[in-house]
Amino acid sequence: MPKPIFGGNWKMHKTMQQAVRTVGELKKEIQNLDEVEVVVFPPFTALSSVKAVIEGSSIALGAQNMHEKEEGAYTGEISSSMLLDVGCEYVILGHSERRQYFGETDNQINKKARAALSSGLIPILCVGERLKERKDGKAEEIVSVQLRGCLEGIDLQGGEKLVIAYEPVWAIGTGETATPEQAQEMHRFIRITLEELLGKEIAYSIRIQYGGSAKPDNIKGLMCQPDIDGALVGGASLEASSFARIIKYKE
Ligand code: PEP
Fold it and tell me: How far is ligand 1, taken at its centre, from the CA of residue 200, in Å?
């Protein structure tokens, strides 16, 4: 199995100076820890200065979004080559906040994922159901549609890497976490769907992160589950000390 992967999604938080301070503290806290992979996702404006701090360390850099086109008249947008140029290895795609507030569809996310993969970036593809959909017994159906739509035409036969983040929308930023059993059940379902779409070998090489109010005090229970391969962390990644406690969940 590949290493577990922990991502810190800082969303629209932190000036350059604040981002540099946080990542500097994080670097100290997780020195010599090589059994997990750690990626930070600062806002675009802090990517370059954060990159300078993590250079030579095991922390990788990622962006929170990108545009599917390489260049052109798309005011306010950022392309994959711009992200690579600044040192990004990862990009979050299809986060529920992008879907909810910016109207991103599975089709658009699929275009972004194809562009990211062909440029050499590793997409972290977010899927997850809303509360009503879970209550209506439709959680798996929703996640299945999202996975199939976002992965259409993608086979990863060239050895490209991809990460999936299962983020139940009702657990994001709410303090309400999925129980380890609820999360495992959906991660298992995602693994089986990936197996169907991409084949067994690739499905088991893909890390499936849990996201949604992951915290130092609930991470251990989540990470014990066989199909949970890491976490995408929002609020609790803003402080280096709490993010480090999540990353060092085994201690
Ligand atoms: C997220 O937005 O990806 C997330 C998981 O946020 P939080 O940890 O704050 O719920």
Answer: 29
